[in-house]
């Protein structure tokens, strides 16, 4: 692990002092991490992986290996104990899978079948189809938040650069910004960039660019209330720590959960933290779709009509106030199932 850290730091052209400043820890600790005389905490492993562009799983496995060896040393019963640990960890993974409801498991199975059909279709992206679906996504995601541009007007604003009479400048910017944010998450996928704090802030910056420039890409500094909901988001001084926990949860669970569940969980967790003064909904849906696209799925498009919007809001509030995510996970899974089925129908599969 020590070699891994040092090589990654040098490849990034960073000094130990600079790494220490960015992580807000003592410079001597970085040196000790690199010479093996001190082990970072798990939280520090997450931050080091993100900062130094090291695959989190690779770094965590190296960290765990050293931690285990340090604890058990050369004890004669070590291998027997390791076999027991392996069995218990496997049982825990099976418990996670069994914790999914029958309804959710059934939909995920149906999604897997549709996904297998999609995987067999070579290069399923078609520019015209993709552009049309992304336009619909921009229209619906903005409509959820109260934007009154029609689908046709959204197309004219984005693709023709026209100004729609009677529509506010904000509504025009929301269409343009969301379109550019979709392009940005696709760029992250092409570059194989992992989801991290900087990327989420960049997505949000695009969403609010030119609308609320002082708040774009920044965590909120005031308390907020969610209109029509009894849920109260955390106080602003807690947001930074909540977001840190958000990314730790992601890194810990990204390889253990079905991609649909992972994407839905990130969507709900980000909305529950409500880290921004505005643009939380659009940002969380983009983060969800970033995860889906990374895993080879299609964009899931939550409609902005009254009935769908109410099901979306009600399932979210249940997750936030009753610690019951079942309805929300089912809602997202059903949306992705419908999106996959529609895409396959469009391409003739």
From TrEMBL:
<feature type="domain" description="HTH cro/C1-type">
    <location>
        <begin position="5"/>
        <end position="59"/>
    </location>
</feature>
<keyword id="KW-0547">Nucleotide-binding</keyword>
<dbReference type="InterPro" id="IPR040198">
    <property type="entry name" value="Fido_containing"/>
</dbReference>
<keyword id="KW-0067">ATP-binding</keyword>
<feature type="active site">
    <location>
        <position position="274"/>
    </location>
</feature>
<dbReference type="GO" id="GO:0005524">
    <property type="term" value="F:ATP binding"/>
</dbReference>
<dbReference type="Pfam" id="PF01381">
    <property type="entry name" value="HTH_3"/>
</dbReference>
<dbReference type="GO" id="GO:0003677">
    <property type="term" value="F:DNA binding"/>
</dbReference>
<dbReference type="InterPro" id="IPR003812">
    <property type="entry name" value="Fido"/>
</dbReference>
<feature type="domain" description="Fido">
    <location>
        <begin position="195"/>
        <end position="334"/>
    </location>
</feature>
<feature type="binding site">
    <location>
        <begin position="312"/>
        <end position="313"/>
    </location>
    <ligand>
        <name>ATP</name>
    </ligand>
</feature>
<dbReference type="InterPro" id="IPR036597">
    <property type="entry name" value="Fido-like_dom_sf"/>
</dbReference>
<protein>
    <submittedName>
        <fullName>Helix-turn-helix domain-containing protein</fullName>
    </submittedName>
</protein>
<dbReference type="InterPro" id="IPR001387">
    <property type="entry name" value="Cro/C1-type_HTH"/>
</dbReference>
<dbReference type="Pfam" id="PF02661">
    <property type="entry name" value="Fic"/>
</dbReference>
<feature type="binding site">
    <location>
        <begin position="278"/>
        <end position="285"/>
    </location>
    <ligand>
        <name>ATP</name>
    </ligand>
</feature>
<feature type="site" description="Important for autoinhibition of adenylyltransferase activity">
    <location>
        <position position="145"/>
    </location>
</feature>
<dbReference type="InterPro" id="IPR010982">
    <property type="entry name" value="Lambda_DNA-bd_dom_sf"/>
</dbReference>
């Amino acid at each position: 692990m020590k070699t891994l850290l040092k090589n990654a730091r040098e490849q990034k052209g960073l000094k130990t002092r600079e790494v220490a400043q960015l992580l807000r820890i003592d410079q001597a600790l970085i040196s000790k991490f690199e010479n093996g005389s001190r082990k970072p905490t798990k939280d520090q492993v997450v931050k080091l992986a993100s900062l130094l562009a090291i695959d989190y799983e690779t770094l965590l496995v190296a960290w765990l290996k050293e931690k285990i060896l340090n604890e058990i040393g050369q004890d004669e019963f070590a291998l027997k104990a390791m076999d027991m640990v392996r069995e218990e960890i496997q049982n825990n993974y099976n418990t996670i899978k069994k914790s999914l409801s029958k309804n959710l498991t059934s939909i995920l199975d149906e999604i897997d079948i549709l996904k297998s059909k999609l995987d067999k279709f070579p290069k399923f992206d078609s520019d015209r189809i993709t552009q049309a679906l992304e336009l619909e996504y921009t229209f619906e995601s903005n409509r959820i938040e109260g934007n009154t541009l029609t689908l046709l007007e959204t197309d004219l604003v984005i693709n023709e650069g026209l100004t729609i009479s009677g529509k506010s400048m904000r509504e025009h910017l929301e269409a343009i910004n969301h379109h550019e944010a979709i392009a940005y998450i696709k760029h992250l996928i092409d570059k194989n960039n992992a989801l991290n704090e900087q990327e989420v802030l960049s997505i949000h910056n695009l969403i609010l660019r030119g609308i609320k420039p002082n708040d774009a890409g920044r965590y909120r500094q005031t308390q907020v209330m969610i209109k029509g909901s009894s849920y109260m988001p955390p106080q602003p001084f807690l947001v930074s720590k909540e977001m840190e926990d958000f990314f730790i949860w992601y890194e810990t669970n990204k390889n253990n959960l079905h991609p649909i569940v992972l994407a839905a969980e990130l969507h709900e967790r980000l909305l529950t933290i409500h880290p921004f003064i505005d643009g939380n909904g659009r940002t969380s849906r983009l983060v969800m779709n970033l995860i889906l696209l990374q895993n080879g799925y299609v964009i899931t498009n939550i409609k902005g009509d009254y009935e769908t919007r109410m099901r979306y809001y009600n399932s979210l509030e249940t997750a936030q106030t009753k610690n019951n995510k079942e309805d929300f996970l089912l809602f997202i899974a059903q949306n992705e199932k419908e999106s996959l089925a529609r895409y396959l129908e469009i391409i003739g599969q």
